[in-house]
Protein 1
Amino acid sequence: MSTLQAIQHVPLFDKCRGFTAAREAQAAGLYPYFTPITEAEDTVVTIHGKTKVMMGSNNYLGLTHHPKVLEAAQAALRKYGSGCTGSRFLNGTLDLHEQLEARLAEFVHKEACLVFSTGYQANLGLVSGLMGRNEVVYLDKLDHASIVDGASMSKAQVVRFNHGDLAGLERKLRDEGRPQGAMVIVDGVFSMEGDIADLPHLVPLAKKHGAALAVDDAHSIGVLGPTGAGTAEHFGLTDEVDLIVGTFSKSLASIGGFVAGAEYVIHFLKHHARPLIFTAALPASNTAGVLAALDILQSEPERRAALWENTRRLASGLKSLGFDIGPSETPIVPVLIGPLDKTLVVWRKLFDAGVFTNPVVPPAVPPSQCRLRASVMATHTAEQVDFALDAFAGIARAVGVL
Ligand SMILES: Cc1ncc(COP(=O)(O)O)c(C=O)c1O
C-alpha cells in the first residue's frame, strides 16, 4: 500500500479490497466476463487473436454487419454528427427519432411509441414513470433486472410472483383488493430460460382484475409472430396487451429501446419518465441504423425462418446429446450444467474449442442451477451450429456432465 493510500484510508472501500472472488477466477483462468473482442464479423469473433463461433449474442437476425444498416448509420453520422448532446426533452429530439417512433408504433400495432436511449431505460422509464403511490406493480420473479429496478425506483407497491405461476398471481391480485391502479409486467421471452410468457392466460387475468398488462419484448421483436412483431402477435393478442417494450440491442442490431401503447399513455410517459428526460438522446447513427434494420426485418422474413431453423438444430442437437435445456422454446437455449465450478470449466473448454457462450451463475440463478446460455443467429450456417454441438458433445463427456 502506498503512503498516500495509507493516509487516505476510506472505510467504505474496505469491501472493495475484500472482494476477491473475481480475481481468484481470473487467476485460475476461469473468468468469463469483460472479454475484449478485437474483431467481429457477424457469426465469428476474434478474441486474443483466435476466432470463435459466436453462440452467445442477441444479434438474432444477424444485422449488425448488414451493408444497409452500416450505410444508414454512416450517412446519419455525417448529416447529424456524432451525438445529440442533450435530452429528448430539450435539444436532443431528431426527426429520425420521430420517424422511428412512427414506424415502431405501426409495426407493433399501437397508437404511439417513445424511443429511449437503451432498453434498460425503456423499462426503467415505463415502470417508474407510470406507477405511482397507492398503485401496485406485479412482476414475474424472472423479469429482467431493468423491470425490477424500475419497480424499486417507483413509489408503487411491488408484488412479485413465482415464474409463470398465474394461480399465484391471481391470489396476489385478489389479495390487494382494488388498488387505484395496477400493472402486470412480464418478459415476453425470458432472457435466461428462453421460455415464452403465457399471454393467453395472462391477458384475461389482468383484465379481470383491472390491471394493465405490459410485455417486455426485448427477445421477441424480430423473433416471434408472423411479422416478427413480438409475443402479443405470436399469440394473436396484439390488441389485448396494453404496453409493449422493446430494445434495439438484439434483433435491431444497435442500442436503444422503446415503449409503445395508447397515445395518451405515451404522452404521459414523455413528461414523467425520468430515464427519458434526464439523459441524452439516442445518437442519429444508431437511430438510422435501427430504421434500416427494421426495413430488413420487415422485408426479409426468410431471416426469421433461418433463425428458427438454427434454433431447432441447436435445441434438438443438445437434447439428443442428453443435455437439459430447461423450458426453452426460442433461440435462447440455456444448457444446464449444475454447480458453478463445473459450469466455468465447461465454459472454458468450449471457449478453447472455439465456441463463445455465456455462463449464467448466482445470483442470476440458484447455486445448483448454473448454466451456459447459448443463442443462435439467423446467419449461423448449419456447419457452425454443428461445430458448436460437436464441441458440446466432446467437452461434456470429458467433464462428466453426460
Ligand atoms: C428482457 C430484457 N429486457 C430489457 C433489456 C435491456 O435492454 P438493453 O440491453 O438494450 O438496454 C434486456 C437486455 O439484456 C433484456 O434481456
Note: Residues 227 and 281 are 28 Å apart (CA to CA).
Protein 2
Amino acid sequence: MAPLEGITGYIYRNAHSAYLGKLDKYFTPFLSPHGEKENLTHRERNDVAPEHNMGLNVVPQILTNKSSQFIRVAKYLQDLGYKEVNLNLGCPSGTVVSKNKGSGFLAKPEELQQFLTEIFDGLDMRISIKTRIGMTDTSEFAELLDIFEQFPLEELIIHPRLRQEFYTGNPHREVFHEAVVRSTKKLCYNGDLFLKEHLDTFAKEEPSVEQVMLGRGVLRNPGLLQLAQEGTMPDKALIKEFHDRLYNDYRDAMPGDKPTLFKMKELWFYMGTLFTGWDEGYAKQIRKCNRLSDYEQIVKQIFRDGEYTDKI
Ligand SMILES: Cc1cc2nc3c(=O)[nH]c(=O)nc-3n(C[C@H](O)[C@H](O)[C@H](O)COP(=O)(O)O)c2cc1C
C-alpha cells in the first residue's frame, strides 16, 4: 500500500485491512522531522504508535535531506520496534522541492550520495527508497540508478514520473524497464495500476518484478486486492462495513463534523465512480453536504440504490 498523505494513515490502514484483506506492506505517509530532536508532530507519532498498527507490516516513511535527522527519527522508530524505514525521494510539492527534499533531492546527486552513505553507516536497520525518475528529464535517471546501486537497499520503489509531471500523463514504463535491466536491487513498481487489467498486463510485461505498490487503485476500488487475487469483487455490504468503520473511527479521533466530512469526501472522490448514479447526482450531493446527518442520509441511499461494480 502506497503512502498517501492525509489518507492512508493508521485509521485507514486498520479499517481497510479489517474488511478487505491485508496488503503485504503498508508505507506510512511521510514523517517530516524538524529541529534537533526526533521532533515529529503529535499526528505523526500517533500514526506510527505500535498500538495503532497491530498485526500490520508497516514501514514508516521519512522525508528529509539531513542525514542526522533521518538517523534520529529512524532510531526512534527502531526503538518502537520498526525494522525498516523508507526514504521519500518522490514528493513533488513546491514547498518540499524548494528545500531540496522529496523529488527535489534528485537534483542534488552528490549530496544524495553523501546522505545515503551517512544513513547506511549510521543505522542498523533495513532502508528502502521510494523515488521518482528525475526532476525535469528522464535522462536524469541513469545517474540516480548508479547511485542507488551502491547501497544495500531493502528495495527500490520506482514511481516512473518526473517531478514536473506531478501525477499527470502516463508513467514512463520504458524508464522503469531500464531499471529492470540494469539494477541488481529488489524493485517495486508504482504508478497508475487501477484495474485488475493493469495488474495483469504489468505482470506479463515485467515478469521478473514481484512487487507492486498500489495507491489510488485501492482508494478507487477498496476491493482491488480481492479482485486481483480471486477475480471477484467484494460484496457491497463489505464495502459498507469498511466505510462505516472508517467513518466511526474518524469521528472518534477528530473533534467536530468538518474534519470527518473532509476525510470522507476525499474517500468518495476516489471511490464514488464505482457506484452507479455517482455522476448523475451523488457526487454533487456528497461534495455539497455540510453536516454529518446529511452525509449519513446520502451514504445510506448510495449503498441502498447504487450498484458497486468495476471492470473485471
Ligand atoms: C493525495 C496523495 C498523497 C500522497 N502522499 C505521499 C506520501 O506521503 N509519500 C509518498 O512517497 N508518496 C505520496 N504520494 C504518491 C503515492 O504514494 C503514489 O506514488 C502515487 O499516487 C502513484 O501511485 P498510484 O498511481 O498507485 O496512486 C501521494 C499521492 C497522492 C495522490
Note: The beta strands are 26-27, 58-59, 61-62, 84-89, 126-131, 156-158, 187-190, 211-213.
Protein 3
Amino acid sequence: MQPRTDNAPLQQLDQWDDFVATRYRQGKSEEDFRNYKADANPTVTEFYRQNHAFQTLDFVLSKKAEYCSLRRDRQSIWEMAEYLNTLVDDSDPDTDLTQIEHLLQTAEAIRKDGHARWFILAGFVHDLGKVLCLYGEPQWAVVGDTFPVGCGYSDQIVFPEFFAANPDSKIPQYRTEYGIYEPNCGLDKVHLSFGHDEYIYQATRRYLPEEAQYMLRYHSFYAAHRHGAYRHLMNAQDERMFEWVRKFNQYDLYSKGRERPKTQEILPYYQDLVSEFFPDRIAW
Ligand SMILES: [Fe+2]
Ligand SMILES: [Fe+2]
C-alpha cells in the first residue's frame, strides 16, 4: 500500500461510493440514515473534511472555467473508459471491480429492467468524469456528495459541521437561504460543488436526452434527490427531471453487489450503443 498524500485520504475513489451505498443500504430507516457517521471510517471522514472546507464558490467557478469549456482533449468514449481504467489504486483485483466493470454493471442492471437505450447508456458513462483524478485533481474535487455553493448549506448534507472551515461560511451573502440565487431559479443557474458529475454532464450533454443529462449532472446531489433539500432553488422542470435522477440512483447504488459483468460477451452491445449516440470523438 502506498502512503497517502494529504490530498488523497481515500485508498481508492470507490471508498466514497461504497460509503454512500452503505449509508443508503436497502431496508435502512430514516433514523439509520441520520446515523451515517457509524458507516464512515476515518479516511472517509477526512475526505469530507477536505471536501467541505475547500469547495468554495471561487474554486467551483475556476474549475468550471478550466474544464467545462472542453478544450483539453478530443477522445472517444472508449478511449476515456480505458483511460479511467488506468486509475489503479490499492483495490484488490480479485474482488474489486475495475472502473469499466462498475460502469458496465450499472448499465447492465438498467438493461435487465428493460429501460430505454439512452438510460442504459447513461449508466455506462455516468462515472467517466472521474478521469479528473488522472488530470491531477484532488479527491475532494472529483467525488463526494455535491451541494450548492454561494448559498446556505443544508443540514441534509453529510457532515454539515465541516462547513465551518469553508471560507464561504464567513461571507454573509453566501450564508442566507438563497445566497446569490433567486427563488426557484432552476438548478442550471446554481453552482454545485465541483466534481465528476458536472464534468461528464458537460462532455456528453449534446448527445443525450435531457433525462440522461439530469442523471449524470445530479447523481451525487444526495441532499436534493434523496432528502428533498434545496427545493427553493429548483424549478418545475427540475422537479420533473429529478424523478429520473432518483430512478437512476437505485442502479448506481445497488448494482455493485451483483455478479461481475461478462465484459467480452457484452462489449459488442455497448459498442453499438455508444456509436448510436456519440460521434467517434468528443471534446473533453
Ligand atoms: Fe458517480
Ligand atoms: Fe457510480
Note: The pocket of fe (ii) ion (ligand 2) is lined by residues 17, 126-127, 252 (CB under 6 Å).
